[in-house]
Design brief:
- The complex is a heterotrimer.
- In chain A, the strands form 2 sheets. Chain A has a 6-stranded antiparallel sheet. In chain A, strands 4-6-7 form a 3-stranded antiparallel sheet.
- The mean pLDDT of chain A is 94.
- Chain A is built from 3 helices and 9 strands, in the order E-E-E-H-E-E-E-E-E-H-E-H.
- Chain A is globular and about 35 Å long.
- Chain B is globular and about 70 Å long.
- The mean pLDDT of chain B is 96.
- Chain C is built from 12 helices and 15 strands.
- The model of chain C has no long low-confidence stretch (mean pLDDT 96).
- In chain C, 36% of the residues lie in helices and 14% in strands.
- Classes of the chains: A alpha+beta, B alpha/beta, C alpha/beta.
- Chains in contact: A-B, A-C, B-C.
- Chains B and C meet through helix 1, helix 2, helix 3, helix 4 and helix 5 of B and helix 1, helix 2, helix 3, helix 4 and helix 5 of C.
Amino acid sequence: MKVPEELKYRETHEWARIEDGVATVGITDYAQEELGDVVYVELPEVGRAVRGGEAVAVIESVKTASDIYAPLSGEVVAVNEALADHPEKVNEDPYGEGWIFKLRIADPAEVEALLDAEAYRKLVASEG
Amino acid sequence: MGFCFSDRVPLIFERSRPGRRGTPAPARAADPAELFGEANLRERPPALPEVDELTALRHYTNLSRRQVGVDTTFYPLGSCTMKYNPRVLEAAARLFADLHPYQDEASLQGALFLMHELGEYLKALTGMDAITLQPAAGAHGELTGMLVVRAYHADRGELEQRRVVLVPDSAHGSNPATSAMAGFEVREVPSDADGEVDLEALKRELGDHVAAIMLTNPNTLGLFERRILSLTEAAHAAGVQLYYDGANLNAIMGWARPGDMGFDVVHLNLHKTFATPHGGGGPGAGPVAVKAHLAPYLPVPLVEKTPAGYRLDFQRPKSIGRVRSFFGNFGVLVKAYAYIRLLGREGLKRAAALSVLNARYLKELLKRRGYRVPYDGPTMHEFVAQPPEGLRALDVAKALLDEGFHPPTIYFPLIVKEAMMIEPTETEAKETLEAFAEALGRIARRGQEDPDWLHGAPYTTPVRRLDEVRANRRPVLRWRPD
Amino acid sequence: MPYAPHTEAEVRAMLADLGLERLEELYAHLPADLLDPPIELPEPMNEDALLRHLAEVAARNRPGRVFLGGGVRDHFVPAIVDTVAGRGEFLTAYTPYQPEASQGVLQAIFEYQTMIAELTALDVANASLYDGASALAEGVLLALRATRRMRAMVSRGVHPEYRQVLATYLNAVGADLEEVPLEGDRTPAFAVADDVGAVVVQSPNFLGAIEAYAPLAEAAHAAGALLVVVADPLSLAVLRPPGEQGADVAVGEGQPLGNPMSLGGPHFGYIAVREGLLRQLPGRLVSMTEDAEGRRGFVLALSAREQHIRRAKARSNITTNAQNAALRATVHLAALGPEGLKGVALATAAAARRLYQLLLEAGGVRPLTRPPFFAEFALRLPKDPAEVRSLLAEAGYHGAYPIPEYGEGAALFAASERMTEDDLLAFARAFFVAVGG
């Protein structure tokens, strides 16, 4: 299970890469493994304002549907259109080509509340 | 094994040959342009198959041989009550096939009598005061019942505050989906260690923000909620309406009634409890019975008995309106009526008791073969088992197909991991239950010795495990002409 | 009890295995207050007595040739439809959760989905819904979800009962519904506000009239709304289908395809949509795929939309379809083929047109529906239509359904391919007596 050091995490298994006030969001390697083969990703609309903790996307596997929560408040500025034809990228490359959406961060202070890699590893260990 | 004829059956479209004709068409000739005007005619004819009648018949007959049903196979699908559907019920429905719903009431006295009588029987069996036969399925009945509850609270000026419906975590998925469709928020209530609703947790949730509680009793673990009277009393004290999901009424019909338990609204699944066929996934029927205080809100029309005969009552100002066109699935109602007349009260009671006996007997047989029953209370018409340690319910289900049995419901209820929900019904013989248990025993033994064999099952069915990931990532939902 | 195989000895042996002696003990843990409720039911009957009883009940209905419509009509059903749909493998199965044992039902659904998509000229159809009315309600909810709007407009040319069901469903989720009155027998052009998510029209409409709704599709789309069209599937054998006129969603009542009238049910409703709306569809969908050995097979697909997975966030609470009724339609369409179906549609429309001409010869009877119409039409009668319907019934005919919403004296009639010239003449004679007397 990969947990890149440079990322921030939410306890609901989303990761966020923060660059220049924009957070790129996806689901963790652990989450994609638990879900199994991803068959569809329901993406949010670009321009939508979201609050941290709000359900903004849905990931479907054959037998489940899981909400993806915004780790931070902000505005959706991009979504990964490539997932429409290739949802399997979430399984193959969860931290890279499998990213889901990008948020312009409204309140940088919220970043502090996210987990770092070590804390997320501990969380997963306690769930497993 | 081999309950299926396994040759590949092409699509009916692939059997099509231009110019072939099937059932002879009617004689009256007509010019479409003259009848409808050129602008109204379709440009391209629909690409329906062009086959002769024998080819059509052979095609669907061969398809049927790639299908199992209760008529071919033991089908212990938990929660679905796959009992024998007496064939006389089909003959009964045919007697009423030529009636049109817009006929004059005076010309429908037989049909209206039958609907009225069936309503009386169902009210007696549930202990309720009024009934609608209009909903077309169990889930449709749920929606109807919850809309009635909604209208009741609205009429009392409490709908604004009563936004929440409580549903146990063991509930059918249709319960929360129905509540959402009826405009409510759903909150889950946990089950306790015995598999019954956690009464204290439920009481903490009660209040004037709650509109209703939806319960199945016996619940989806097959357990009768023994504290039901305390539960309904506490709920009523908080102004909350009690909804009874009738999916499992077959376990207690004639023995106990939801109305006496304190429920305010009940839906029935005629295709489960009253032996009308499931049809490969419908049509069924989902009548909704209510206590008197909810009667004004039932859908229109209701059948009414008057000194001058039976009539349809449309003048119901507080009604939620219609949920279906016409009178619901009347043909299914005829079959349920016929079933009740065949069995009578004692027959229905005995059917319920034998369904419990079969399930209890089978549960013991499985426990002796290493299957686990996590909530092993006094289960009724069904029970939820788990495969022996290390085996997956999905694999066991697939291996059952090779043994010539339809598998139980798997992965439901959600509160049991690797759940196998088994409902044998009363119409199965002792030796069938024993053969099923033997098969499960064999599967467990061989599966533990040879996991790869188990993961590969089934081997003898017309197709083996299908690529569901592909079907969901890139669904192909229709044939297209080249 | 009948239909249970248990001998008394077996019951005793099974009870003994559980450490019990009597069946009553299986209920001993229920609260005592609940047990043995007073339930009065008639004494049981055997099968022969049952059928004799039911024949006697059925005889209390008055038989007659049916000239009634409302989307349910007296069409001929080829005998092979009963043969196939009555096969136990199809009749006594349930939803195909185990695809390896359910290829028969699954492939039949796939063929059905294809046939409905072809008839409507849209991309995708689901496995069927309960009836035309609930299919309309689901179609409008779908359009509101897709547009994220909470307002729908519906023409009064749409079947009144469908509008009532639609109102029930929309009321539950707090969406607004506005009705658009007809001008004469057809839907006028109307403005679509930009908060409207769904516009609904029916063609042939409830009065039978064929509506030219392509301009309405343009108006709806310009406002960002979707057009939902209610269409009689039989009419689509010849008439311009929804997909050729800008519809986003097509729904309808399936009875004319191979299902007996049966007092209005069980039947099925169909729903078909443009490709982009696929994920919004409620209900079952079947996809083609392959098995581990590369053989073609069929499975339920996109289940994550549905109640057993999505629970409170499901597209609908529907758990099944109306499979046996939809199977009847599938076999019906296969048996008739495109030419046969077109023949039935044309013969139906020709019979309806002939009947219209005949009935208009009666004194004081005026047309409400103007040609072109399909299988049904409305007239204004010079006396109470309820009385006319009753008099017709006494003469052995069922016709003249009163539709007071459409004006005083308004009544609905229908014909089908089954009516010969003699049948039409005989009905017309009875009608002359009924309206004249």
